[in-house]
Amino acid sequence: MRQAFLPLENLRTWSHFNDVRLFEASIEPHIIGEDGNEKGGGLQADAEHGPGKPFLAVPLDLVLSRERVEQCAKADQYLKGLIEAAPSLLKTPRTAVLLFLVYQMTINSPDCQGYGLGVGNPFADYVKMLPHDILLPTFYTPEERDLLTGTSLSDALDQKMISLEQEFDSLKTFTEDIPWCQKIWWDDRTGCLTIEDWKLADAMYRSRALELPRGAGVGMVPVVDMANHASDDRYNSRFEVDEETESVLLVARDHRTVKQGDEITIMYGCGGACEMVFSYGFLEEHASSAREMFLGLSIPTDDPLRVAKIRFAQEAPGVRIYVDDSDQVHWESTFVWWACVNQEDGLDFRVERTLDGEMELKALWKDKELHAGALQSILEDDPFRDVFVLRAVVMIQERVEEQGTKLATSEDDFQNALVGDQVRTPVYQTIGRLRALEIELLARAYEMLETKKADLVGSTVVRAYLENGQPPTSESIGISPDDFS
Questions:
Q1: Which InterPro entries match (predicted)?
Q2: Which of 52, 158, 347, 412 has the fewest CB atoms within 10 Å of its CB?
Q3: How many CB atoms neighbour CB 277 within 10 A?
Q4: What's the rounded Cα separation, in Å, for the pair 387 and 207?
Q5: Residue 226 DSSP code
Q6: Tens digits of per-residue pLDDT, 386-423?
Q7: pLDDT band, very low/low/confident/very high, at 120 (cuts 50, 70, 90)
C-alpha cells in the first residue's frame, strides 16, 4: 500500500507534545559520518555531558511494546478485533508490534482514507516519520541476494523470507473474515495490503527494537531509536529505565565525556557481522572481524536414528563459530552431539504411552533415561569422551571447509557483478566486506579445528578406537573408567 510520510524535522515538535524531554541535546535530521558522508538522522549533544548525565527521557507509555499494543486495543475496537482474531500474533513482542504497525500504516495510507479506522494515539505520526527505504537484506534484489552465496547470511535470509511469508499468510487466514480487513486488505479489487508491507513493518521493528533493562521488556522507543550505532569501544551513551520517573533515559556512558557537538551513539548489539547486516543493513566502519557465524549442520540421511534424534533433541541444527575477547576462535553446538553418537555407543529411543493415553518419545543413554538438554554433559563426562569430541570436531571441520569452499568459488561472480540498478553500490560494498570477514574467520576456524583434531588423535582412547575399528571398552584400552574422572 502507499505510505504516508512526515519529514524527520517534525520529530522535534512531536517530542515536545508527547513529553519527551531533551537535556541539552537535539534531534538532527542530517548527521555527517567520519567518512564525510551523510548517515541520515541522529542525536547530537548541545553541551558537554559527563558520565551518567542524561541526554533525554522518554515516558514508558511511549514504548511501543506488546503491552502497549494491548492498551491501545482497549480504546480501539478495530484493533481489538484484530487481536482477538489473531491471538497467536500477540504471543511474541515482535509479531504483536508488527500487527500494530501494519494497522497504523493502513490508517495512515492515502489508499485507505474514509473508512473510519483508528483512534488517535502518539504512534500515528511516529510511524509516518520512520524510514520507509531500509537497506535490510529482506529488501535485496534477486541479483543482490545472489552475491551472498557462500556467506552465512545467505541461508539465514532464505529462512527469514520463508518465515515472513508464513506470517503474512497466517495474518490473512486470521483476518479475512473481518469485514473491513476483507475490503481494505484482501479484496482482489480494493485490497491493498501486500507482503512488502509486512516486510516493511518487520524491518522497522528489527532495526529499532531495544531490549530494555529491569524487566521492562522489548519494544521500539521513539527518539532513543534515533541514536546511531558505534562499536563496543566507541559508543558514548547507554539507555536505562528510571522507575521513579517511569521513563527510559539515554545517558552518557560510564567513564565517558561527550563534548558539545558530538554525535550521541549507542551499541546496537554485540553479535557478528552477519547479524549486523541481517538486522541493521550495515557493517560498522571499524569492523576487523566477523566475530561469529552460525553454520547449519545436518544428521546424515543414512542414520537409522535420524528422525528420532531431530524430534527429541529440538536443538538449533548448527554450530556457532566465534572469536572470544582474547581473539581466540572457538565453536559451540548442542546439536552436533546428537549427530555424533548412535546405538553402538549407547544411545537408543523408545515410545511409551503416558497416563492420558498419548504416545511419548523417550531417549536412553546406556539404558538410562536421557533428558534432551543433558547429552553434551553426559558425553563430556563419559570415559570415552575423546572419541565423541573427535567425531564432533571432524564433522564441524568438514562443514567449515564446505562453507569456505562455497564462498571462495563464488568470489569471481561477486567481483564480476555489475553495480547499477539491480545491484546498489552500498549493498555491494556491505556484502563485499561481509564476504571478506567471513572467509577470514572460516580459515582461522579450520586451523583451530585441525590443531584440536591432531591433539585428539593422539589420545589413548582414540588410538584404541582406531586400532580396534569399534567403540573401545575399558578392557580394550587397559584402564578403568575411574581414570577419566
A1: SET_dom_sf (IPR046341), SETD3_SETD6_MTase (IPR050600)
A2: 412
A3: 25
A4: 44
A5: G
A6: 999 999 999 999 999 999 999 999 999 999 999 988 99
A7: confident
